[in-house]
Design goal:
Elements: E1 5-10, H1 14-25, E2 37-41, H2 57-69, E3 75-79, H3 87-93, H4 96-103, E4 106-109, E5 115-120, E6 123-128, H5 129-133, E7 136-140, E8 144-146, E9 150-152, H6 154-157, H7 164-172, H8 176-185, E10 190-195, E11 213-217, H9 220-231, H10 239-246, E12 258-261, H11 275-280, E13 284-286, H12 291-306, E14 317-319, E15 328-333, E16 340-344, H13 351-363
Parallel strand pairs: 1-12, 2-3, 2-7, 3-4, 7-10, 13-14, 14-15, 15-16
Antiparallel strand pairs: 1-11, 5-6, 8-9, 10-11
Helix pairs in contact: 1-2, 8-10, 12-13
Length: 364
């Protein structure tokens, strides 16, 4: 896998989807069997993954199994819950104790680890020695909203690799610059993004948006740029992405990315909206919609609502496979609605493209 490659897979089997991504990336063949493999999930709170805040444990186990199947023995899960919560409790909630017993891996609570203080772009950061000692670091972030940085994915997931004192300092420093600086000290060697049901706009979860997809890449900046587009954001709306590019961490050039879909999203999975997601659904007319397409539409509607223009939308949006081959007056999202008066192409279209499409309709 090259730095400009992004691989995407759809489905409702996190374990199988993870294995498909790893097989495609061919990581095991490029590493020494003595390499120290570190997995960095997102366990910001001790809550199960169905709420949209934390990494699905099936993904973590599938990564461990992949490396075990290829003869790797030195594997750790390394993480730190946010300040005020217990990492040990988060490990327990996600069943990591069983993974220790079954696969012989180790768990490292960054809160209890030793640190090395490293100066980067004017910030003195206390980073986990275990993270720095790793030969191959795999970040397993959740693509989700965040109340302070708008979005969190690969770059911000590295914040779980530092001391609680540094976490507090990051907030006093404004988050964006130190997040970018941290990734110049240690960035992920591979990013596997859990984009199955990340939260709409809050890092603690509560409003999960079911999209049933995962994607992988080697460049954390490019991965975050792609993730932002899936949520309906420009990179300019998430300053740490462009700052990280300025610092030399990676590239935001999505136009030059080689994006490969390993399968198609054809399953209209049962959707269980809650809270704000349920309110946004009132703007849609869905019929057998695929989860990724529908999830992107929900993210787009949320962005328009945040800009204060969603209420100006004077008609509902049609979406779903049942509109294939049909014509009609109105707005449609996705290739299945190309017979409508106006529709945004794509299978699925990115949320950012949907935002621009609806904005133009409102302005017209």
């Amino acid at each position: 896998m090259q730095p400009n490659d992004i691989a995407m897979v759809y489905g409702n089997d996190p374990s199988g989807m993870t294995r498909k991504l790893l097989d495609h990336c061919g990581i095991a063949e490029s590493l020494s069997k003595t390499a120290y493999i570190v997995l960095k999930p997102n366990l910001v709170i001790a809550a199960t993954a169905d709420g949209g805040a934390t990494t699905h444990p099936e993904i973590v186990e599938a990564v461990i199994r992949y490396f075990k199947d290829h003869g790797f023995a030195n594997i750790s899960i390394v993480e730190s819950a946010w300040v005020g919560d217990s990492t040990a409790r988060a490990f327990k909630v996600h069943g990591y104790e069983r993974l220790v017993e079954e696969y012989g891996i180790t768990l490292v609570d960054v809160k209890k680890d030793s640190y090395t203080t490293i100066e980067a772009h004017g910030f003195a950061i206390e980073i986990s020695d275990t993270i720095m000692d790793s030969d191959f670091l795999i970040s397993l972030p959740v693509l989700k909203g965040h109340c302070q940085t708008t979005m969190t994915c690969a770059l911000k997931n590295m914040k779980g690799c530092i001391s609680d004192r540094s976490k507090r300092q990051f907030h006093s420093w404004g988050l964006h610059d130190p997040i970018a600086a941290l990734n110049t000290v240690r960035k992920a060697d591979l990013v596997l993004v859990d984009s199955l049901n990340g939260d709409l706009d809050f890092e603690e979860g509560g409003n999960p948006v079911q999209t049933n997809r995962m994607f992988a890449g080697r460049d954390s900046v490019l991965v975050d740029t792609f993730g932002a587009s899936l949520m309906g954001f420009e990179t300019s709306e998430i300053p740490y992405i462009e700052i990280a590019e300025e610092f030399g961490v990676g590239s935001t050039d999505l136009a030059s990315a080689n994006i490969v879909e390993l399968n198609r999203d054809t399953t209209g999975a049962p959707y269980r909206p809650s809270g704000r997601v349920h309110e946004l659904e009132d703007y849609t007319v869905a019929s057998s919609a695929c989860s990724a397409c529908y999830g992107n539409l929900i993210h787009a509607l949320a962005r328009l609502d945040e800009r204060g223009i969603l209420s100006d939308l004077n008609q509902k949006i049609h979406i779903g496979q049942d509109y294939k081959g049909k014509t009609g007056c109105g707005l449609g999202v996705g290739i299945c609605t190309n017979g409508f008066t106006r529709s945004v192409p794509g299978c699925p279209p990115k949320a950012l493209d949907i935002v621009k499409f609806i904005e133009k309709h409102i302005q017209d």
